[in-house]
Amino acid sequence: MGFLKRFFNLKDENPNTKSRDGWTETKVHNDTYFLNIPQEQKDKWTSVKHERDNVSKLIKKDGFYDKPHGRTGTIYHVNDGKLCEIDYEISGVAYYDILIYFDGTKEWLLPEKRALSSVERTDISEKLKLWLTKKNIKAEL
Fold this sequence. Notes:
The chain is of the alpha+beta class and about 140 residues long.
């Protein structure tokens, strides 16, 4: 939990507890725990991220938009006023510039959450590969 506190800049509201209010830990193994974070908190983080990345302006024009943040980043894909996020991180090997987590892209986030169909996922993947080639970015999908 110490790493998460530093990473998310958290302060304990009650110093006698290990987790923040609403957060729970599920014991998975003898020394392994799974941290459960409430959906409200995750939605708040997403809202802050969208504000920081000016998503309200991005959604007006179709295309791909790269928003790096340190060693990680998000590629936003906009199509007909719909937006989805594709997360990535900087590669640790010289062969790739970035490692893309396309498996995590499962839904349109805006204007409303809706699952991506397999045809839409394939279409986005193909367009993303073309966009990356055009930008001269070597990526592992």
